[in-house]
Amino acid sequence: MPLYEGLGSGGEKTAVVLDLGEAFTKCGFAGETGPRCIIPSEIKKPDVSKPVRVVQYNINTEELYSYLKEFIHMLYFRHLLVNPRDRRVVIIESVLCPSHFRDTLARVLFKHFEVHVLCNYCMC
């Protein structure tokens, strides 16, 4: 939770900013000078010896959905420590990001985490 959350003039909470890169993910809150955390874009599966990369464009949608669900859960509840329902989300992504990845990420955020507002920002 941001330290200054209760000091604002209004009751509006700052948006969560997510930048899912192929190697590292940066996440934090809008209005802060930098990301709260920079972590590898991977999850550990018990049946696989090496960590699994989350940002993969060549896997099926169900598997990608599962990876993103687990990874975003870790971001919200281990690193950001906020309820996803209470915050707007800004996604920073590459222009070259495939549409099936964008769709799956949006579906995870809307259906599983019940995010109310999602904004995509494409980096050139």
Automatic annotation (TrEMBL):
Pfam families: Actin. It comes from the Eukaryota. InterPro entries: Actin (IPR004000), ATPase_NBD (IPR043129). This is Uncharacterized protein. It comes from Meleagris gallopavo (Wild turkey). The gene is LOC104911277.
